[in-house]
Amino acid sequence: MAMDPVPVSETTVVTDVATWLEENWSPDLSLGEWWNRLGRSGWGFPAWPQAWFGRGLTGSAARAVIAERTRHGAFGPPSGISTFLAAPTILAYGTDAQKQRYLPGIATGADVWCQLFSEPEAGSDMASLQTRAVRDGDEWVITGQKVWSSGAQFARYGILIARTDPDVPKHKGITYFLIDMHQAGVEVRPLREMTGEAAFNEVFFSEARVADADRLGAPGEGWRVAMTTLSNERDPNNPGLGTGGGSLLGKPDLTMTVAAYQAQQAAEIDAFSFAISGGAGELFNRLVSKFGASEHPVFRQQRAALHSDRVAQRWTAQRAKANAKGGQPGPEVSTLKLGGSNVGRALRNLGLQAMGPHGMLAAADAPEDGLFHKYALFVPATSIAGGSDEVQRNIIGERALGMPKEPDLSRDLPFRELRVTQRPSN
Questions:
Q1: Residues 283, 224 within the same domain
Q2: How far apart are CA 82 and CA 112, in angstroms?
Q3: Is the separation of the CB atoms in 177 and 140 below 8 Å?
Q4: pLDDT band at 400 (very low <50, low <70, confident <90, very high)
Q5: Smallest Cα–Cα separation from 263: which of 21, 27, 25?
Q6: Rounded CA gap, 424 and 198, in Å?
Q7: Segments forming the whole domain that contains residue 270
Q8: What CATH number does the domain containing 111 carry?
Q9: Is 388 within 8 Å of 124 (Cβ atoms)?
Q10: What is the DSSP letter of 414?
Q11: The pTM is what?
Q12: DSSP 8-class letter at 356
């Protein structure tokens, strides 16, 4: 169980982290050494429990740490699926042995993780997943296919949900695992996107194995555990998302100096990391200024509407943080996820409009070396990843507003009786 947040004044926190940074931070350190120092000090993820690489701080105190680190110019901790999806779920449901095994590599950036949830026949209706796990003594044998797995080609471990009991309704026969990606029986095939990059992948399991000791939660309760993961994925308050250092995809070279790695990052930023980290807003403002778009009254009105939407997003994020129960985000995060998709589309449209005919260019011919154009091509993914806009509307209606659930005749049927393309044979 996670420990309660530690009540401490922000002034004390800022003083403590500033002193620590003075003694430890240097851009000449190797990336591995810096992340090791930062992770083990607890200042990398201050909202995590004290026993597990954190400081157990409240939200405002944790944010003060991040602000002081930024003011100091120190590079942030690792970011990505490892820190904003895997770690919160392991902290919530993991045994002490699992925390001891996996959290050090996450906190120090030594291990990259991926998410193995969606399937070709189980996207929006994820509970219809067909990847199966069959018990074999102290291990489970995994067979099936996943898709849209961000960064799987770089990952050491994955968070995986698989069907372990086809004789119960689809939501009840699912189990959650922590799986080693570097083993026989795991094949990763990158998917090339219209950005020209390959952030997503197909992953095929052919009798891959995972120890029962790496099962997260009880057998058949994987859906409940997965909802914790998805809530964090949709929650912009999640301290592991966009507040750290490094690309959200890829395996960093830990032997590089921090300064060299930062320079490489700035030169080679991928569309996925750029979109998730929020850098598009700053680039948008720069383009608006460069092309004088605000001189046009209609554009000013459209920009004002966008600003209002972004302010509403920040207010909703604060409310969602305040309403979180036991540190776990609630259905309000679906409002944030849906609103974020709308803001992303509006920002894309106005950014391209601001550039006028330059908005039709691409790559090095476009302003800012085409970075905003790359972001524009990636924006449609934000309406799908982490749960589509339609799924978010259902969650808001059913769980936040208390409206009746959509009719689903399959909800109470054993999974084996459902009409799916390929039912597990076990």
A1: no
A2: 6
A3: yes
A4: confident
A5: 27
A6: 30
A7: 264-385
A8: 2.40.110.10
A9: yes
A10: B
A11: 0.84
A12: G
For the chain, the helix, strand and coil percentages under 3-state DSSP, each to the nearest 5? 50, 15, 35
Judge if 200 and 96 occupy the same domain. yes
Check whether residue 17 and residue 100 sit in a common domain.
Answer: no
Two structure tokens written together for 243: 């507040």
Distance separating alpha carbons of residues 26 and 163, to the nearest angstrom: 47
pLDDT tens, position by position, 371-381: 999 899 999 98
Instruction: Give the C-alpha separation, 294 to 82, whole Å.
Output: 40
408, with CB counted inside 10 A (0-12, 13-18, 19+), is exposed
Task: Return the closest-CA partner of residue 184 out of 133, 141, 130.
Answer: 141
Same domain, yes or no: 15 and 67: yes
Instruction: For residue 181, give both structure tokens.
Output: 């990606």
Number of folded domains that form the chain: 3
pLDDT at position 19 over 70 = yes
Residues 6+ apart with CB under 8 A from 274: 280, 371, 374, 375, 378
Do 203 and 333 reside in the same domain of the chain?
no
Contacts within 8 Å (CB) and 24+ apart, 286-294: 286/368, 287/351, 287/354, 287/355, 287/367, 287/368, 287/372, 288/350, 288/351, 288/354, 290/367, 291/354, 291/355, 291/356, 291/358, 291/367, 293/353, 293/354
Alpha-carbon span 226 to 246, nearest angstrom: 26
pLDDT score of 319 more than 90: no
Helix, strand, or coil (residue 201)? strand
371-382 helix and 279-291 helix, angle to the nearest 10 degrees: 130
Confidence grade of residue 423 (pLDDT, cut at 50, 70, 90): very low
The set of catalytic residues is 233
Residue 326: per-residue pLDDT: 55
Helical ranges in 42-95 per DSSP H: 59-72, 81, 87-93
Q: What is the pLDDT of residues 221-260, one digit of tens each?
A: 999 999 999 887 755 545 444 455 565 667 889 999 999 9
Residues 6+ apart with CB under 8 A from 311: none
> For residue 341, is it within any domain?
yes
